[in-house]
Amino acid sequence: MKARSIAIALLLAAFQVVAQNNPVHVLASNGMKAVIDDLKPQAERAIGRPLVIEFGTSSAVKTRIEGGEAFDVAILTSDVIDDLAKAGKIAAGTRTEIARCGIGIGVRAGAAKPDIRSIDALKKTLLASKSITYAQDGASRTYILQMEDKLGIAEEMKAKTIPEQGSVRSNARVADGSAEMILTLVSEILPAPGVQLVGPLPAEVQHYVNFAEGIGPNSKNADAGKALVKFFASPAVAPTLKSKGMERP
Questions:
Q1: Residues of the chain with pLDDT under 50
Q2: Among the residues of the chain, which ranges form H helices?
Q3: Domain 2-100+211-247 carries which CATH code?
Q4: What is the pLDDT of residues 43-76, one digit of tens each?
Q5: Where are the domains of the chain?
Q6: DSSP state of 175
Q7: What CATH number is given for 102-205 in this structure?
Q8: Could you tell me if 134 and 163 are in contact, meaning their C-beta atoms sit under 8 angstroms apart?
Q9: Rounded CA separation 127/123 (Å)
């Protein structure tokens, strides 16, 4: 009887160890990649679990979740999280704001930085550029097009624009010289190899994209998911957000 009790206790302990090592599956926006990559070790220590993270554009990740893909935590643009919550794809009461990020311009590392400090300077720089690129499925695209309309240069920019799938490929075009400039979120430019940030857009045409998080309604790691959501919303994350070109909303 005693041996059986010991065996059961050992079996329960083994199940507990397996549960503690069960990874938390995160689906996240490319706009948050630099922050999440930097904070991953700290986050894993905070929740006591390993993280398995997949990145993509918020729109692409939304499609995957709507198609039934399982996940524990989603970190996406706030509007996408809201849409998913309304559709029952984010657990009620778990939606939490994390950060916001403005749009900037990047050029090839080592290239001269053009002047974009004012509306007039930005307009001249864009018109003088040989080519620009951005993520055609990215969260900032709509606002880039609105900016071009506001500056009255939408038609002129069409011929020199090279849309790409995702900011990673857009940045790669700038790094290899096949595009002169990238327009995207500052947080996507700063970590890109071979690309340097010129700066954010002037305040008059700047737009901020907000990011939020939420837990999957069918997550089998809900407690660890809640701990992760709490971690990314904590004050401890603020310095990393700032270093990656982001800020609290």
A1: 7-19
A2: 2-21, 33-47, 58-66, 78-86, 119-128, 141-151, 154-158, 166-176, 186-189, 222-232, 238-243
A3: 3.40.190.10
A4: 999 999 999 999 999 999 999 999 999 999 999 9
A5: 2-100+211-247, 102-205
A6: H
A7: 3.40.190.10
A8: yes
A9: 6
